[in-house]
Amino acid sequence: MKTLATYPVLRHLLDENRQFALVGRGTANHCPMALTALAAMGASAERLEEFFDYWRDHYSLPAETTPQQIGYADFASCLGQRPMFSGLQTCFLHRIAERGSSEVVREVLAAIPVAPATTAFHALIRLSYGLQSGHDAEIAAGLAALVVANFSIDIAMHDRLPAASVADGFKQIADHMGGKKFEGRMIAERMAAVTKDSRFVRSLPATPVTAQLLDELAGWAIAAYWQTGDFTILHMVTGVHAIRQLIPYLHPLRRQALYSDTWLALCVAYASVGAPALRPEQECLHSLKQANFQAQSWDSLFRQAILNNDDHAIKFTYTCSREYGLHANPLYQATAMRMLDIRTHPY
Length: 347
What we know:
By secondary structure, the chain is mainly alpha-helical. The chain is 60% helix and 1% strand. The chain is globular.
């Protein structure tokens, strides 16, 4: 990613984003994440300003004022207290100025449940973008969101047999759930309903034993999104990528807890959309090959994503490029092309 020094306008717009609330009109505040992705893909200063204005006019809500000042020693008392977001962001920002962002991220993530599912994965996604951009206020915002909206899934995981693999674990859930649907307007509402479902609790396997859990989850998620186009599964793709960014900030024992929490959150998310039956990742890749899939270059995809006002298309294209850099899976290009409505061979 290009440095913020290359994009002074990005720093300015991320500062300006503090005037917006944690959530927008019917959505999370995706503005800072989309801006960071646009900058990383090479958007001009003018395009960043244009997107900021678009988001402000169509989706933003004014930031709420926290009723009292929050001391750093008391941040854990804000757990689950959404009206405290703005004040807690300020609290964390002051602490970052004193001690540096790395130390504050480590301290906060050690003191509260990391809870990947918080705000439908958006809290950790926002934090990861803050870390990628190096913008202190956005790092503080991601941490504050994780605290005030904390969605820790309380399902006992001991005495469960681990899934034989990531794919087998999700298939086990699909086989037991039988396509059951869950009510709720928002992703988090449906996920909360899943956690109370006795059939799901009985079917849930423990975390697969593998040294490449995040890689396997990423491969499964992109294949699942390729097959379903489901909005919740899209957030599983971007959520796994975000969690990768946090691993270096955690103590090794805390990392293991994050892996388990990530598995649990993704299983809940999958069940929340009916746990659809899926083909294995290798079958999806074979289908692309058989159809003579012709991938566009990432530079070409970036140019088209930059022109798009859909924040999910912007972030998804950027995420796919980053994951492709780790594992050159053509499903990342294929799904990004579909997201951007780029016509190619049928597949």
